[in-house]
Design a protein that fits this description.
Two copies of one chain form a homodimer. Chain A is α/β, with parallel strands linked by helices. Chain A is built from 13 helices and 13 strands.
Amino acid sequence: MPNISNKGASMPESPIRKLVPYAENAIKEGKTIYHLNIGQPDIKTPEVALNAVKNQSLEILAYSRSEGSEAYRTKIAQYYQKNDIQVNHDDIIVTTGGSEALLFAFGSIMDADDEVIIPEPFYANYNGFSTASGINIVPVISKIEDNFALPPIEEFEKLITSKTKAILICNPGNPTGYLYSKEEITKLANLVKKHDLFLLADEVYREFAYDGHQHYSVMQAEGIEDHAIMIDSVSKRYSMCGARVGCLVSKNKTVIQTALKFAQARLSPPTFAQIASEAALETPQSYFDDVIEEYVERRNTLIQELEKIEGVKVAKPNGAFYCVVELPIKNADHFAQWLLEHFDIDGETVMVAPAAGFYSTPNVGLNQIRIAYVLKKESLIKAVSIIKKALTVYKD
Amino acid sequence: MPNISNKGASMPESPIRKLVPYAENAIKEGKTIYHLNIGQPDIKTPEVALNAVKNQSLEILAYSRSEGSEAYRTKIAQYYQKNDIQVNHDDIIVTTGGSEALLFAFGSIMDADDEVIIPEPFYANYNGFSTASGINIVPVISKIEDNFALPPIEEFEKLITSKTKAILICNPGNPTGYLYSKEEITKLANLVKKHDLFLLADEVYREFAYDGHQHYSVMQAEGIEDHAIMIDSVSKRYSMCGARVGCLVSKNKTVIQTALKFAQARLSPPTFAQIASEAALETPQSYFDDVIEEYVERRNTLIQELEKIEGVKVAKPNGAFYCVVELPIKNADHFAQWLLEHFDIDGETVMVAPAAGFYSTPNVGLNQIRIAYVLKKESLIKAVSIIKKALTVYKD
């Protein structure tokens, strides 16, 4: 039998997927699971987006342009302009989800064995994309005690080598929920300018900024027009994860021309989903106001309930819909599996994402979990009460 | 300004895209263009597929499973079984177009600098996927005199090195239209077994087999269950190029598990398009009968008209909807550009794909073009008459 590649063998498994068989067994046993583990919101997709697809009258479901339909790119550019991000349609390449935008960015700016510095904990699939691209992630640890704020800029600087091509941030962060300030972005901007690096920012949670904070994009930072590359997606903004539409945005023409060649090779992003995404831009502000209000209430409820548990430490997020929680246990991987296999209250249990998978440094975050607050308040209260009770029974 | 990667710089441009600015200029000048250059059929998408998307009542456009929805995979497996390909749903990973299936396959079985042997001329985007994956294509020339039949198996064998991991074929072929016989597939099967290689087959044109020929899949070849990987797509079968749904199929469990990790990193294939693709499987046989009849007539018309031109050599295709044509000129790149810039009959001209871009060996196929017969017969007759006249005027 022919061998698979070393690359394929070293592709990481998602830290959540490992638990899926245990969850499936729990469901077979008749248990109900509160899913705190996933980033699939329960928020309804705007009707205007769904209706656009229902009402289309295509006779041939044809390719769009490789860079995305002109109409859609023009409208996203307007959306960015309204959000104080000065870009035009030709600074934008529409991609199949934020995932593909990241792959195009990695391919466009990094060769085999090049390095990208990323504050950890970070979105676990960055590991998969870097393995697939043959590049290496160099992590900088951010700390739960600081709410996962940007680590001191010197920590980044001392990791820069001749292999370093970029710094990647997720803002607001998955899994941390941390929203970087203008000052933090400015520090990064100065650093990438000084060392002639790219600054990649995954800003797919831009709309989810709470407590009066304003999101500040790398595309707004002055003097780094040739360095900044923004990754975006409709998945979370409009609760359209299944659309698979994102984009790569940069004022650097060479980056756009290069990414376009990757885009041309795969022909086009999905057509139905572009129709939905274009229509989604008509979503009224009231939709977002309601969604933000809902998430803020969920976050407040979640944190309030978690803080009632002895020995639990919570990073207070002011963006996205995740938070990282430190538990009074040794190994969250084991705890998460145990919750599914051996624990329930009246047939109900909880699925969480062990946070170690969001760190690149080994043996960090072992006692942490990520909670996605994508469930209704009552469910969150119930879920946390199950964790609370479980912690009194669980033995490491 | 930070530099882009060597990989990005060496990503090839599509051989067709180079001509797009000239085509756009021609249109601005008021010319009408017969597009013989693209693989976007004018055939209508089956209504059953479009209606499924119109009639869906999703409230949340959610992720599907990374490997594709269970329902869809189950139904495609049934479709394959009906076509004498014995696979189950768990031998299938649904991908974002055949393109992504190829990228997953390359990533799963090849490391940087590994080699895949491909008969040329081949689908030009294989170049882009191999550059993106950091691997190398080793071409074997097939000849227009043989209708682009499989080159002698010894030609493959003498190219095999320790770096060789796979042989890739496109069957029926784009750009050649050649349909491999059972005997040819068997020869390849024996070779990959002997040298413990993978046999990748891009079979997205399976339905398009003419003149009573039956398509014979690598998945039907005996004894190479662990070697064979099939790439498929709904794009051409149902004229649904914009769906972006394909799949990777293999009986080799390790390959499937490895490809699944690539699939998990990008979360899921597009949901709307999976709904359309699942429904498309209900397309009545009469749809295909009509489509095949239409393509056969188009092919016959095209070849008949081309053969009237002195000095023109045509490979007679018995599959897909392309053919490669040798013209009595030196440089088809230049001719194709000249047609758009400097030639028209009553304001009408033709856009063709120069075939050199489908060869990996330099300076081969310079006098060849690829014609996609995706236009109505009358348009094909008109387009060929324009080429005929142009050849009497054109000077290399």
